[in-house]
Amino acid sequence: MIGILLGTVYDSPKNILAIKNINKLKDIGIESCLFCDIVNRNFSVPVETTVLQRAQAFNFNGSIITHDLSMVQELRHMVYAEKRYLYLYDLDWMRIEDLHFSHLRTTILDDNIDLIARNDTHYKLISDMFKKPKHIMKYWDVNVLKELD
Amino acid sequence: MKILIPNLPFYHFRNIAGCLETISSKVDVRTFLWETEQKSIIDVFDEVSPDLVFLHENQLDGAFNILCKEFDFDYVLVGSKEPPDMGKKPSAVITSQQFEANFRDQKNIMSLLPAAKVTEIHAAQERKFLKSEVLIITGVVPNTEEVLDSMRSLGQAYRTKIIGDSAVPIPNYLGKVNMLERADFIKSAKVLVDFGSYDYLDAAYLKTAPLLKGPSPPPLGKVQTFSDIATLMARVDSLLSDSVNLKGYVEGIHKEVTCNHTYYHRCAQIFSSLGMAEIANTLLMFLNEELLQ
Question: What ipTM, to 2 d.p.?
Answer without folding.
Answer: 0.90
